[in-house]
């Protein structure tokens, strides 16, 4: 099995996320090793040794995906016997031409705290999602960017948290319970913010499986109950002309990206 | 101002995250436009038009960072007047040589649901973080991968959620309150899981600011109270030989990467 090293003088999250995306194009399994915060020559030497030991042990030349800003540290790591790919500089050189500006490489430029205000807004969004999870309160909907609605366990909470952490979006979520749905009407707090509403739905069988893990063999988790709730809530979405999305075969990333595309909500990148 | 387009036939999150990292090396501001799910020729044509209109309006050739798998759709988008950077294929071609295997490009290979089990584990980790937030319960610590401990508002909750969403790690967190700290002893539930403990601390002034936003001019938020709590909890960390980290100038990404580095906890990549 090939070993791939993700190495950075920062968190190495960019190298990881991007390296993982590139490697997922290959029909192979990889042993993945992440080494963040390579900020000293001593640590760079240890990385080089570790890569060389891996080569000696496996007989297969390892892969290295790196985002090391300091050229001295980078050179040291690149002395290893390795197939190296420089994620940043590969694009920085042509971009310098296109932009007519020299790059000014800086450490911790992403995933850091360079802009305290932006960072605080993001953490505020996480706190907002928690404080407004699962209809705990409906009093802060004025401050919400979006309000996700749907039956219990259709994916509202993980999506709210992802929108907050990844994009700094203030997402509340509200669960429909029997009472709301039998009237087939929106509760007042939702009506007052209907331009912020976005519906989530899910296949009855999948909802049944998810709920069964929580409360096995209950009325709540029965396929019949799931079918009824979903039929009602989808009728409500249609009646009220609320955009909605079926989450059954979508990840939180996909759900979030579709919500942003549909609503045109402005995202923040960190 | 330069406009940059992030375009993909998937979520475009890879293009966004990586493009943002590359561009942050330049001392410029960018207008950023993300266009996900370009899955049809019609949509590819609209993207091309939108890029060309941007060029016509601004007179500045836009940048395009893309991860479009389908060659027909890619060609269509690339007919635009644009400085294009192909994030995936730039590395795929040399990797095919190094790995001795042809790439098998597939849609939604990352940020999708190809592996339902992995995805469900990740959502379970998010639910675990929520159910074990802020010491709500201490009964599930057997199932935790890590237990973050520290005073109120030092960064435990966002870090727990990030570890869950990004890496599928089951992170509980427990807040120290006066009572725990005056005894300078670990509560029994923590003692029984001391190999899982990781401490967070923060500068008193910063904690004072954060708490003041919650409860202005309270004893809880006073600088004196913050100083006392932090001094006690740090003494406890030292006394019990618990690894700890000062979060004052670190983002959740940095805190999480440092925790993983220190503990050697295995991460999952999605």
TrEMBL record, chains A, B:
Q: Which keywords annotate this record?
A: Kinase, Nucleotide-binding, Serine/threonine-protein kinase, Transferase
GO molecular function, a single term: ADP binding
Q: InterPro entries recorded for this chain?
A: Kinase-pyrophosphorylase, PSRP
Query: Enzyme class, one word?
Result: transferase
Q: Does the keyword Kinase apply?
A: yes
Q: Which residues bind ADP?
A: 150-157
EC number(s) recorded for this UniProt protein = 2.7.11.33, 2.7.4.28
**Signal peptide residue numbers:** none
Q: Name one Pfam family in it.
A: Kinase-PPPase
Catalyses which reaction?
[pyruvate, water dikinase]-phosphate + phosphate + H(+) = [pyruvate, water dikinase] + diphosphate; [pyruvate, water dikinase] + ADP = [pyruvate, water dikinase]-phosphate + AMP + H(+)
Judging by the UniProt lineage, the source's domain of life is Bacteria
Function as written in the Swiss-Prot or TrEMBL entry: Bifunctional serine/threonine kinase and phosphorylase involved in the regulation of the phosphoenolpyruvate synthase (PEPS) by catalyzing its phosphorylation/dephosphorylation.
Q: Which family does it belong to?
A: Belongs to the pyruvate, phosphate/water dikinase regulatory protein family. PSRP subfamily.
Q: What is this protein called?
A: Putative phosphoenolpyruvate synthase regulatory protein
Task: Give the originating organism.
Answer: Aeromonas simiae
Q: What lineage is on file?
A: Bacteria, Pseudomonadati, Pseudomonadota, Gammaproteobacteria, Aeromonadales
């Amino acid at each position: 099995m090939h070993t791939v090293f993700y190495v950075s003088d920062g968190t190495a999250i960019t190298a990881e996320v991007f390296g993982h995306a590139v490697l997922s194009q290959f029909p192979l399994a990889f042993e993945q090793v992440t080494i963040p915060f390579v900020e000293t020559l001593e640590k760079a030497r240890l990385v080089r040794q570790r890569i060389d030991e891996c080569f000696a042990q496996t007989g297969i030349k390892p892969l290295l995906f790196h985002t090391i800003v300091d050229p001295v540290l980078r050179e040291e790591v690149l002395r290893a016997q390795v197939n190296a790919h420089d994620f940043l500089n590969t694009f920085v050189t042509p971009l310098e031409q296109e932009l007519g500006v020299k790059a000014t490489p800086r450490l911790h430029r992403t995933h850091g705290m360079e802009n305290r205000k932006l960072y605080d807004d993001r953490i505020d969004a996480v706190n907002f999602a928690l404080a407004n999870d699962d209809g705990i309160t409906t009093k802060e909907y004025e401050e919400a960017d979006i309000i996700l609605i749907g039956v219990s366990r259709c994916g509202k909470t993980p999506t709210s948290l992802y929108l907050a952490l990844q994009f700094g979006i203030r997402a509340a979520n509200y669960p429909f319970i029997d009472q709301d749905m039998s009237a087939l009407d929106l509760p007042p707090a939702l009506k007052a913010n209907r331009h912020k509403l976005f519906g989530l739905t899910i296949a009855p069988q999948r909802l049944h499986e998810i709920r069964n893990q929580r409360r096995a063999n209950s009325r709540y988790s029965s396929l019949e109950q799931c079918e009824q709730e979903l039929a009602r809530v989808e009728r409500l979405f249609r009646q009220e002309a609320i955009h909605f999305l079926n989450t059954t075969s979508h990840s939180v990333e996909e759900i979030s990206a579709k919500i942003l595309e549909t609503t045109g909500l402005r995202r923040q990148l960190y």
